[in-house]
Amino acid sequence: MQLPSPDLYDRVIAKINYENKLLKLKRRVFLYAFGLLASSIASAPLLTKLYEDTSRSGFLEFLSLLFTDFQMVAFNLRDYSLSVLESIPATSFSLTLLLAAVFIFSYSKFSDSLMEMKKLRYH
Amino acid sequence: MKFKDTFKNFFQIEHFKKLVIAAGIFLAVIFIFLAGIFVGVEKARFSYGWGEHYYENFVDRRGPPPPFTNPDRDYMNAHGVFGEIIKIEGNNIILKNPDDTEVTITTDSQTVVKSRNQDLKLSDIKAGDKIVVIGSPNDQGQIQAKFIRMPSGMFPY
Prior knowledge:
The structure holds two protein chains of two kinds. By secondary structure, chain A is an all-alpha fold. Chain A is built from five helices and no strands. By secondary structure, chain B is of the alpha+beta class. In chain B, a hairpin with a 2-residue loop joins strand 4 and strand 5. Chains A and B meet through helix 1, helix 2 and helix 4 of A and helix 2, strand 1, strand 6 and strand 7 of B.
C-alpha cells in the first residue's frame, strides 16, 4: 500500500488558501469592474446635465470675465465672487465630482486587484 | 514621566498628521456649508424682492406678486446676470436671462460698460444686445450694475 506524501497536508492547506484568495480577488475585481462600468454609463447623462446647467446659469460667462476684465473683477471682487458662487450649478457639479471620484477609485482598485491576481501563485 | 512620554509620542506619531488632515477637511466642509447658506440667503432675498416688486418693475401697475409656480425655477442670482436686453427705459435695462425671467438692471454714472477693450456709454447699448452684468441687488428687486460687458464673440451664446 502506497503512503501519501509527507507534505500532502501542507499542499492541501496551501491549495485551500490559494482558492480562498482567488475567490476574494475575483469578487473584488467584479465589484470594481461594476463600479467602473456604472460610473462610465452614468457619466453621459450627468455630463450633459452639467453642461446644460452651466450654460443656463452663466457660470462660464462670469468665469471668463476673470480673463477679459481682470481689473474690473478685482475692483468689484465681492460682487464678482458672489455672482460666480451663485451661478455654480452645485448639484450637478458635486454629483459629477462624486462620479469622477468613484471612477478613479474603482479604476485604481480594479487595476490593483488585477495585478494582485497575476502575482497570485499556487505553491 | 509616563504622561510626558505619551504626550511627546502623540505629536510624533502618524495619528497627529491624520488628526490635522481630518480637522482641515472638517473646516473646509464647514466653510463650504456656510458659504452655501450665505449665497442661498442672498439669492432668496433678491428673489423675494423681485417677486414683491414685479408689477412695479415690469407691468407699471401695482398688484399681487406673481407666485413662484414653476417648480424648476431656482432662486435668482442677485449679484450677476447675463442675457438679452428686451428694453431700455432711461437708466434701467430690462434683461431676459436664459431662464426666460426678466431682470431690471439699474445703471448710474459709475457703471462701466465695455465691449472688447473699449469703454462704451450706456447709450451705445440697445435692445437685442447680449450682456453680462456684475452688480449688487437693491430693495426693489433690481440689480444695481457696476460693470456691464458686451460679448465680443468669445461667449458661447
